[in-house]
Description:
The chain is of the alpha+beta class. About 25% of the residues lie in helices and about 40% in strands. The chain contains three helices and five strands; from the N terminus they run βααββββα. The protein starts with 6 loop residues before the first strand and ends in a 5-residue tail after the last helix.
Amino acid sequence: MKFITNYRLTDHAREEMTRRQITEEDVARVPAAPEQTETVREGRQVYQSRLGLGEPPRLYLLRVFVDIDRVPAEVVTVYRTGKVAKYWRARG
């Protein structure tokens, strides 16, 4: 698993982060230390981690799509979902 700490946010990713109220700090944490990764296609990886948000905390999955075939890597979009089970792969 390749961890990403040096990347560029695309304009689209910034727009989606603003629209979805996702912080740069949350985005930075996921590719740097993802709980899981998935290959979307050659050169594009999804990094994902679970996080608790709100009061009381509710479990969400933050998914960060990264084009890893360039330097620096580019975060192309990001979103969070409450449907953790839909995207989470059980280890087994």
